[in-house]
Each structure stands twice: as C-alpha cells, then as structure tokens.
Amino acid sequence: MKRFHFILFFILLTATSIQINAQTCKPSGGIRGRKQPPGQCNKENDSDCCVQGKFYTTYTCSPAVTSATKAKLTINSFQKGGDGGGPSECDNQYHSDDTPVVALSTGWYKGGDRCHKYITINGNGRSVKAKVVDECDSTMGCDADHDYQPPCPNNIVDASKAVWKALGVSQDNWGDLDITWSE
C-alpha cells in the first residue's frame, strides 16, 4: 500500500511539474491603432507605424528567462531623433548607435530591474555583451510617447547598430534575427 501511495504521489508531482512548465505568457489585452499626425512616425530602420483601426496585442509578461532565452533581435536607434522615440527609460538619456545597448520587452525589463545590467546575446555564431538601457514597451503603443509604433511583442531584444555589427550580421540583414540571451 505504501508503494502505491508513493507511485501516486510521484505521478501527481510529475503532472503538476509539467503543468507549471507548460504555463506561458499570455496576452494581457490590446489596443487599436490610431492615425499618426503627418511625419510623426519615424521609419528609420524600417520601423512599423501603427495602422488606424488595426488591433495590436499587448503583454505585461515575457517568456521565462533561462541560460539561453530565445528571443527576436530587432534594430533600434537610441540616438536623439532616432526611431527609438524619447530618451531611454533607465537613465533618461540618449545613447550612441555605436554603443552596444538594448531595450527589452516589458516582462524582461522587469520595471527597470535590469537597467544598466549587461546581457549576453548569442546569434549568427557570435556573442556580444550589451547594456540594458530601455524598455521595448509591450503594453502600450500607437501614440506620441511610442513614436506612433505598435507595442513590442513579448520576446524582443531591441538592439543598437553596434550589437548587430558585433554579431557580424551583414547590414542588409539587420532587423530581425533569432537569438538567445542570458544575464
């Protein structure tokens, strides 16, 4: 009888563990795109502009961080006048495109807990360390504060040109790359 209880306990523990691991980050809502004033959406780096009436999914979470967190690397200018919009969230400053810096999706940004910390990005057979200086907002978008761009998906590492160069990606392929990253 004890053996039966042990086996039943083990099965329940395993099933619970599988269920916990299967939980993922689910959408938290959405917003409708608004028409931006003329010339207000910066298209540098082929940035998307919100489309009036289009539904954009929002997230307050991101996938769990692991020793090799899967993500999409996108490109962003952190310089004044760049497609990143305003100054960076972490320090209210602009940053040179020649400096390896990144913005993380809202869940990974963790309310600023990762500000000024370095992450290691692996992609294209290379790796680079980059400083977290901003949030790629997954909860808001389509307004002046977000340069009239849609909310970020929940799995984005938005990187400066310096990161793309360090990874050895040819310039004509900048914009969207499957990567992993770690703290």
Structure explained in plain terms:
This protein is α+β, with helices and mostly antiparallel strands. Helix content is 17%, strand content 26%. The strands form 2 sheets. Strands 3-7-4-6-5-8 form a 6-stranded mixed beta barrel. Strands 1-2 form a two-stranded antiparallel sheet. The longest helix has 21 residues, at 2-22. 36% of the residues are buried.
Could you list some keywords that capture this structure?
183 residues; two-stranded antiparallel ribbon; globular; six-stranded mixed β-barrel
The overall pLDDT average reads: 88
pLDDT below 50 for ≥5 consecutive residues: which ranges?
4-22
What is the radius of gyration? 19 Å
Proportion in helices: 10-25%
Let me know the number of strands: 8
Q: Quick one: biggest sheet?
A: 6 strands, mixed, barrel
Counting H and I runs of at least 4 residues, what is the number of helices? 3
- H/E element string? HEEEEHEEEHE
Q: So what's the overall shape? A: globular
Give the end-to-end Cα distance, rounded to a whole number of Å. Answer: 47 Å
**What proportion strand?**
25-35%
Strand line-up in the sheet with most strands: 3-7-4-6-5-8
Structural class comes to: alpha+beta
Mind sketching the topology for me?
Layout: H1 2-22, E1 29-32, E2 55-58, E3 69-75, E4 101-105, H2 106-109, E5 118-123, E6 126-136, E7 156-159, H3 161-166, E8 177-182
Parallel strand pairs: 3-7, 4-6
Antiparallel strand pairs: 1-2, 3-8, 4-7, 5-6, 5-8
What's the short version?
The protein is α+β, with helices and mostly antiparallel strands.
